[in-house]
Design a protein that fits this description.
homodimer, 361 residues, alpha/beta, Dehydroquinate synthase-like, alpha domain, 2 domains, 12 helices, 11 strands, disordered N terminus
Chain lengths: 361, 361
């Protein structure tokens, strides 16, 4: 029998799949938000094992978890091995299907905790309390969870929105300055995408070198505004069928830099580098006045210098980007501030712009 | 600040989560169905590595996969280690987000292939071609995917429905008789739950010991009817909020037996044992004329004898069953044929019935 296109061949049975919609995510932003955390039913608290005891203790007091599991810190924790260990610990402790998982820590911890929640017993309720600027404005909102493979970052995961997110801006007071500046990349990115006023919040004066600090009175408002940009996009396109891909501005190169450096480069610094590359590419496609912003941001952020690089060496990693298809990678660029689009880029142009970017950084 | 119930505390932001509905599953049942398989875009074929070459070759011809990955056979393949290996192989080969995964083999293979599809790049399209009776009437339909942990069976997974399922009944001709009889347990279970006529198809004469064979002309119709029972329940309750749990008739004890025997007992034989236990429990709760059917089925199926068992030793495993909650396990019982319900059972009664069951088997 010749193969028949199933779409034209009448099946014997069809089963509709009408899963109920996922939960609405409720998000609290501000000083003391963690003390508001509360959840019905038994909760397993998964926290970054290097998190200051003070924050673990506050989460314990608020949630009264039946189980507390420290998670390996940073990208090392975002591995299938760590996921497997955590799943076994939950099973061993007998967390029931009616239970919930709370992720407490930076983006790596909330990513892995969310993926564990998505897959334990085929999914249990999930809550997040992000403790870094980066995870507040990006990782903890929008349902993306993920872990890395040796082949690249975030190649495994699930869409599993947190039912509640507590962004306690007090936790930022004890965050290392470098981590704070790393996280500011995602605030800046949301500014480039949809909220130019955020650029001024991060870098009020590009000449003075002053900028947002973790002790700023305006921080809760800045975080709230940055989260709102992401929330608006996610609400319109939860599973990245279209515009949600814009949130990957700067991330195609960033993920490649992270993989290339074996995750030694912090995510926000990689995004800082990647945003500048995207700005230069955008200008090569006709946009104006973008790379000044991203270059000023890099100067303010002061990221770790990169090892010797070639586009050639990064290319296989870039080609595994989740936005790639059979015709190769696609890039998020800007027509102008607030006007993102997704496009392929000619390889010769990429080579040109890559050299320009290398001179700038 | 005293903890506040978030449900009464106004959040700063809410993000609706309105993921599009999953795909409709289209199911083909009959001789030659595999030759109809076709899929748009690049496909990775994941098949049981012990499957006869003939079936792998037919799937290759129909689908023209860009990648073919053998999967460890049986329950050993349903491990996080095997999942991790397969995910890396897909990433290494660069299967894009627009690609799809086809699972070819028995229930263990389609369970693991489906879970890989659910998590690779946060989910790609999934197709299934079950090659055993058990996987046709149960595993391949309804969106449940899963892998085991050392702590128990199917403790990890995701709901990820196959877009198309090809049940080629020709594949059953080469299935070992024991596997065929093992799979018949799920046909019988669907008969007990909602289609008494299937009991007669499997065991037309309880006295003669004759019964359904894999060469029966009626097999495609029997498979179609058994799939229909599951499809109807899944359509009404895709994510097991309520009646879908009835499909676990016999499975609470079955999963414990499988874990206790380190997965050496085939699933369908464990379900055969478990259905008889459920029938006896149902009768202890007032039902009539059920255990005659399940006992006759056990005699026909002729399962592997069980090791020396005690309910005491099985209890911790039973308590980790996914239907368990903080008050302990729940059991699917029958008021009568076609009338399932979910209930807790008094521990003393369980002890009694367990001894009765041990005498019967």
């Amino acid at each position: 029998m010749a193969p028949t296109d199933p779409s034209t061949c009448h099946p014997d049975l069809t089963v509709p799949w009408s899963a109920p919609p996922g939960p609405e995510s409720r998000i609290w932003v501000g000083p003391g938000a963690l003390a508001q955390a509360q959840a019905a039913g038994p909760v397993a608290l998964l926290h970054d094992r290097r998190l200051p005891d003070e924050w673990v203790e506050r989460a314990r007091q608020a949630l009264q978890p039946s189980l507390v599991l420290p998670v390996r810190s940073g990208e090392a924790g975002k591995s299938m091995q760590e996921v497997t260990r955590l799943l076994s610990a939950l099973a061993e402790a007998g967390l029931p299907r009616s239970g919930a998982i709370m992720g407490l820590g930076g983006g790596a911890t909330t990513d892995v905790a969310g993926f564990v929640a998505a897959t334990y017993l085929r999914g249990v309720r999930y809550f997040a309390a992000p403790t870094t600027l980066l995870s507040m404005v990006d990782a903890a909102v929008g349902g993306k969870t993920g872990v890395n493979l040796p082949e690249g970052k975030n190649l495994v995961g699930a869409f599993w929105p947190a039912e509640a997110v507590w962004c306690d801006t007090d936790t930022l007071d004890t965050l290392p300055v470098r981590d704070f500046r790393s996280g500011a990349a995602e605030v800046f990115k949301h500014g480039l995408l949809a909220a130019p006023e955020l650029l001024d919040e991060v870098l009020p004066s590009q000449r003075s070198g002053a900028g947002l600090t973790q002790f700023s009175q305006r921080l809760p408002e800045v975080v709230r505004r940055a989260v709102q940009v992401k929330a608006d996009i996610v609400a319109r396109d939860p599973t990245e069928q279209s515009e949600r891909a814009f949130l990957n501005l700067g991330h195609t190169l960033a993920h490649a830099l992270e993989t290339f450096t074996h995750q030694r480069l912090p995510h926000g610094e990689a995004v800082g580098y990647g945003m500048h590359f995207a700005a230069l590419l955008s200008e090569a496609h006709g946009a104006k006045n973008l790379s000044g912003h991203t270059h000023a941001f890099l100067n303010w952020q002061n990221p770790e210098p990169l090892p010797r690089l070639s586009l050639e060496a990064l290319w296989p990693i870039i080609n595994r980007d989740k936005k790639a298809d059979t015709q190769g990678p696609r890039w998020v660029l800007l027509h102008e501030l607030g006007q993102p689009y997704l496009t392929r880029v000619d390889r010769a142009l990429l080579d040109d712009v890559f050299r320009q970017w290398q001179r700038d950084i």
